[in-house]
Amino acid sequence: MQAIDVLLTRRSARTLAEPGPDEGALGLIFASAAHAPDHGRLRPWRFVLVRGAARERLGKLFAEHARRVRPELSAEALERERVKDAMWRTGGLAYDELVKRALGFGPTDAIVGFLYLGTETGPPAPVESREWRDRVRDWGTAG
What we know:
single chain; mainly alpha; NADH Oxidase; two-stranded antiparallel sheet; 38% helix; globular
């Protein structure tokens, strides 16, 4: 499969479980991220792995964040905050000072996202065909 085929058929997994990527796969993931094009040479330089029992602690930290910013959340909604599936997540968690401190980041550090990795346990989500034409405007011909 060519890289363009991978990009065109990309989809997010619905659910994940152990095992996650092994050390070799993680090395390739991090090497790829460190060499990805960026703006102004602002390369990611630190990754925090959360594995094993630390995942439970991170889930509790995320639920604590949810309780603080949305105290009206039900116990069921808090449980969903604690136990997440596969996703790239940014949002309020990435900017929360308590979360940043708990993960060992300083006040001037920025979290660009949380990447959840594992083995997909459910049926694959269908690949959505994404129309791009209505999202593109040629500024040179705009009126």
